[in-house]
Amino acid sequence: TVSVRAVSARVDQPRVNRRRKRERHNRKQEMSTTTMASLFAAMLLASATAFHVPKPAMRTTMRPSTALNAVGVIYSTTTGNTENVAGYIKDAAGLDEIYEISEVSDDTFVGFDGLIVGAPTWHTGADEMRSGTSWDDFLYSNLPNMDLNGKKVAIFGVGDQGSYAENFCDAAGELYDCLKARGADIIGFTSTDDYDHDDSKAIRDGKFCGAMFDEDNQFDLSEGRAAAWISQLKSEGMPF
Fold first, then answer.
1. Per the confidence metrics, is the pTM higher than 0.85?
2. Beta pairing partners, 155
């Protein structure tokens, strides 16, 4: 005799088996979905890591070294020769740049601890405004309002001994007179030897009031003269 419960169990068994099969299928599907999600997340992480661009480190703005910017090489030019010489002087001194006087403010000019200034001579024989450059206005309009007391200043001139032997580097002498009048401590006097000129308004007490260059007739000596002069200026206290 088969009990009602046993008959019922046999009747329900297929339904139970189908439910269990469906549950196993669902569990497999859930595991598969979870596995795929994990794999996808891992791939995304790997991709992000591979193409990650690190943020740049924060930089602290540094002020330029005082040793490299304490001295200003300031010039003006008509033919480019004085600019060339200013470049030789800059390189010999290890400075960063040169400055055209027309682009230098009064505050910048007096702000340098030391000055190296240079000009050509264009108006030969003139008593003033000899350079024919922006120095002419600066010396008589701007400079009189400045106090250069005790500031180390060195002067260079550029001339042509062959064509203007009687007025060689006269404008350098004008720079000397005007800067000296404002209290500048002029250094860097050099010998008149090894030049072929007749006269110069740049001579003080038998020496040039700075370094004189001739890019027309002695261009091959310019870089050597600049290097020797810079060594002299260092020994005389120019604050390089």
1. no
2. 117
